[in-house]
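#struct-help
A.M.: can someone run this one for me? Single chain, 291 residues.
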Amino acid sequence: MATATAEAVTSPPPLRQRRIRSALKHAGLLVFVAFMIYPLVWMVVSAFKPADQILTEPGLIPSSVTLDNFKDGWHALNRPFSVFFVNSLVVTLGSIVGNLFSCSLTAYALARLQFRMRKVYFAITLASVMLPFHVLVIPQYIFFSQLDLVNTYWPLLIPKFLATDAFFVFLMVQFIRTLPRELDRAAWIDGAGPFLTFWYVVLPLMRPALVTTTIFTFIWTWNDFFVPLIYLTRTQVFTVPVALNSMVDSETQSGVGMLFAMSLLSLVPILIFFAIAQKYLIRGIATTGLK
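D.P.: on it. Structure tokens below:
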């Protein structure tokens, strides 16, 4: 009798109960997803609405569709919006090259080379991750201003070539530590120095970490608004986020449609890049110590 009771207690719930629970969970997730994507869907719909209907008809089904927002927004700042796309692309590609070059070299030195205060330098690097960027804004601006580099892209690119993104340094250090040191010793026996060992042995094996760094750098730099806003004040050097902000400041209510239209276009490179690189991102995170 006791055995039968124990079996009844430990037996799984009936199939119908499991289906009901699964349906409720999926329904809750769908409601959550609907709340999350509603602003994006509303922006997409509003980009195709006439300007006078965006705020007066907030529904998702427009009464009329127009492309005037894209036509007007493309030349809203007295120059084609493609100029700002090119500016963002220059800054983004330069940041990617800078991070890949400087962070990989720094990570190799911290992970493989033996020198005094190596652990101290690595601790300082990790501590800089927790340092708010806003603390450094004023001294950095004064420094670049004295060098007459304001309104150029150098203040945005020079820090990338100095391994200031400590997150990527840490990520690469964790990955290099998983590589067997026997590869380094074999290269040294063949006469390779530290740099040749890094270039021909370690760097080719760092592909997952390099891909992860590339993806995150692209997304973060393309969407970055604060830093370009500080250093770029001339319209011809604006990046896409700064151009969108300038459009908000310079337009009245009629400019809302243009803002949504250009914001929608600014998302296209991110979506395309993420769609292409998604599998590499997952693979890179899984193999770089962020499991």
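A.M.: thanks! The first helix runs from residue 2 to 10.
D.P.: also worth noting: The chain has 14 helices and no strands.
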